[in-house]
Design a protein that fits this description.
The chain has eight helices and seven strands; from the N terminus they run ααβαβββαβααβααβ. It is an alpha/beta fold. The protein has one domain: Rossmann fold (3-Layer(aba) Sandwich), CATH 3.40.50.150.
């Protein structure tokens, strides 16, 4: 697991690594991306009685929202390889299950909606994972996949106006250099969905810029990356200390990678 894997996958816990910033990072991702995720799911027509599979849930915000939309007659299956985020017993209509979408057989049930956010780019067998999600859909069911595309917008501060912004961008480039995944994966989602046989494929991009959640995400990501960046010689400890001080001392128009959302219909 590299630095960029942790950055892209947000609340994926760096596959089990716990740190003081994990909760803040998870909250920041939910704040930034839940509204656009919910907008897309509402556009797909979610309603009472729907059966939904939330792949790689990683937290409760999307699961809870889905449960309210489908009501007691619906079903929400939330799966992940690590379900330590589940701190209380699941209640109807939610079921939480350990599942590896890139290795395990898809769950039965004929889902009306399958959704995965910041999951596929971190799965070794992406083709198998995508095929598994599509097999789990009923005829006419909808698939919504959302992935980041750091190569499309690789800057921490698109408005580079001084030393603080220059340092922020240098550190972001250092993180991206420690790559372990396809930095342009997100833009290929529409093609992948069409190739997999889905119909009515559409996509859009969401680009967060300047919000407290962007600041929280940048701070948590840099703090977690500190040891690996310095060990690789990609940045000095002073660089990272200065960047964190800059974030705390002055307003910085920090940005995240764009989130590409793509959706389509089975059959």
């Amino acid at each position: 697991m590299t630095l960029i894997d942790g950055y892209l996958t947000g609340n994926r816990n760096l596959r089990g690594e716990a740190d003081a910033g994990e909760g803040r990072r998870s909250d920041a991702f939910a704040t930034l991306f839940d509204p656009t995720t919910f907008r897309h799911i509402e556009r797909l027509g979610i309603g009472t009685g729907w059966r939904c599979w939330e792949v790689g849930a990683g937290g409760t915000s999307v699961v809870s929202w889905l449960a309210k939309r489908v009501g007691p007659t619906g079903r929400i299956l939330a799966t992940d390889t690590d379900i330590s985020w589940q701190t209380s017993a699941a209640r109807t209509p939610v079921e939480v299950r350990v599942h590896d979408v890139g290795a395990d057989a898809p769950p039965a049930g004929g889902f009306d909606l399958v959704h995965a956010r910041l999951v596929l780019s971190g799965v070794p067998d992406q083709e198998r994972a995508l095929a598994s999600m599509i097999r789990a859909l009923r005829p006419g069911g909808r698939l919504l996949i959302e992935e980041a595309d750091p190569a499309l917008q690789p800057l921490a501060c698109p408005d580079e106006r001084g030393p603080a912004q220059e340092l922020a961008n240098r550190l972001r480039r250092a993180v991206l250099t420690q790559r372990g995944t396809d930095l342009a994966y997100g833009r290929g989602l529409p093609r992948l969905l069409r190739t997999a046989g889905l119909r009515q494929v559409e996509a859009d991009a969401y680009f967060p810029l300047t919000s407290p959640a962007c600041t929280a995400l940048e701070t948590a990501m840099i703090q977690q990356s500190r040891t690996a960046l310095t060990a690789a010689g990609a940045a000095t400890d002073d660089d990272i200390t200065d960047h964190l001080a800059n974030i705390a001392a002055e307003p910085m128009d920090l940005a995240t990678a764009p989130l590409i959302s793509a959706w389509g219909r089975k059959g």
